[in-house]
Amino acid sequence: MAPPALLDALPGHGPAVLARAPGRVNLIGEHTDYNGLPVLPIAIDRDVRVAARRRDDQRVDLANVDPAFAPRHYLLGPQPAPSPPGDWANYHKAAAGALVAELARRGAGGLPGGSFRVDGRVPAAAGLASSSALLVACGLAHLGLAGVELPRSDLADLFARAERYVGTLSGGMDQAAALLARAGEALRIDFFPLRTRPVPIPAEAAFIVAHSLERAEKSGAARGHYNQRVTECALACAVLARRLGCAAAHLGDLAGPEPILADLDDLLPEETTRAALPALTGIAGAELGQRFFPAATALACPDRFRLRARVRHVLSEAARVTAAEAALHARDLRALGTLMDASHRSCADDYGVSTSALDRLVELARAGGALGARLTGAGFGGAIVALVERGSVERVLQMLDREFYVPRAAPRDARLVVRPAAGASLERLDR
Ligand code: GLA
Predict the structure, then answer these.
(1) Domains contained in the chain, number
(2) Which of 119, 246, 358, 385 is at 20 to 30 A from 102, Cα to Cα?
(3) pLDDT for residue 82
(4) Ligand 1 centroid, distance to 171 Cα (angstroms)
(5) Is there a contact between 420 and 43 (Cβ–Cβ < 8 Å)?
(6) Which tens digits make up the pLDDT trace of 128-187?
(7) Contact between 108 and 148 (Cβ < 8 Å)
(8) CA 362 distance to own-chain centroid
(9) pLDDT surpassing 70 at residue 1
(10) In CATH, what number is assigned to the domain containing residue 270?
(11) Are residues 158 and 301 in the same domain?
């Protein structure tokens, strides 16, 4: 049910809608989604709620219960001008812009203006996909105002593409988890085209999310690093496709990861420069620029690209996802824990997305009795997820508190025990 304050704060009278969309914790499969390879997240019992009521014009009014997010308003259109980077209104604009275009494409009418009240309960900049939860909840509420229903998997695709409006080349995991997850289950998600299947979570498994106290803002400092990894993978894919004589849009399109992994040293240089790319890829400079370096994409290091280690991570991580799915079906939590540990090492050593605080949290969780632990989400700060047997939760929390949080005077909610929750919902309320 809606917190009454959220609905009561809506201007006007008459029917309203209430949407909620959860954050997610990715159990394994990091930086695989945009490569067309699988992920295995759970949606969590922390969500973003959005109450909305229709307006008679094209204006969108946004207000947030958290005073850190000041009210915003703008006029609807297919390409609303973005607010400054990092502004929370951009997530609403991203969803609404995509919906205006999609409804027009389907001949399903227009999108009305509306008043929106937002209550975000997913910890922000923590690697828990709070921004995607905000975008999905705003989009669902807005679609509710239009009185249109679209299939959930279409929405997951649409909102994944829409989120690139904020300047990050993100994949489709977060929006799919927010829309399609089921309570008590993890979701294996495959991409291009989007496919999902539920994976049961044994009742004795518990998940602790522990924040590194370093903010990982997808539309902020982490953006250039994230885009760098996406670009490195796309370049590595072009080099591999040429060497192997096949066509591949994503690393996931290359047949047989095992032979590629075995021959990686011969197939790919450890790193390369922008100047060396035409010879390596066989793609001329102008086309390279268009395909891999659009002007709007901020890169952390636009002239130097690591290829071999990035591919080693991505292909080995995809194999770990499949193994993790099998471990969950077999209720083998130890095996899952071992895979999570290996994933963390690969994220840290080959993909370069961990930090010393994340590494320390992983170590402490393991020392406290977790079966496995790894950074979750994009990395560059944010949080870890630890797999813990129910009976060991207190012990792991005590270890994290004593060695990490108490010395840093961290807030108590820096670490959470999360439960696998259901995906987004929409209610219509007559008031
Ligand atoms: C972010 C992106 C996702 C995914 C992860 C890394 O959360 O939004 O699409 O790429 O990073 O696995």
Answers:
(1) 3
(2) 119
(3) 92
(4) 6
(5) yes
(6) 999 999 999 999 999 999 999 999 999 999 999 999 988 889 999 999 999 999 999 999
(7) yes
(8) 20
(9) no
(10) 1.20.1440.340
(11) no
